[in-house]
Design goal:
It is a single chain. It is built from four helices and no strands. With about 70 residues, it is mostly helical. It has a single domain, classed as Methane Monooxygenase Hydroxylase, Chain G, domain 1 (Up-down Bundle). Helix 2 packs parallel to helix 4. The model has no long low-confidence stretch (mean pLDDT about 80).
């Protein structure tokens, strides 16, 4: 998991879910965030977990009041 996502991964750990891989964190974030079906599909199509996390980071920056 990239360092910039360490705090988010720690938050999931506090809820009982230990995440050690970028892919797992990306999927959990995609479940937790209010993404549209098209946005979820776009994430699903990304083969690289780090790319999925970058897309999610961009989404969070663009939707600060939705999280």
């Amino acid at each position: 998991i990239p360092d910039c996502f360490a705090d988010i991964a720690a938050s999931f750990a506090e809820c009982g879910t230990m995440l050690h891989e970028a892919g797992s964190l990306a999927w959990r974030l995609a479940e937790a965030l209010p993404l549209s079906l098209n946005e979820q599909q776009h994430l699903l199509e990304q083969p690289n977990p780090s790319q999925r996390l970058e897309l999610l980071k961009t989404w969070i920056k663009n939707h600060p009041f939705d999280v």
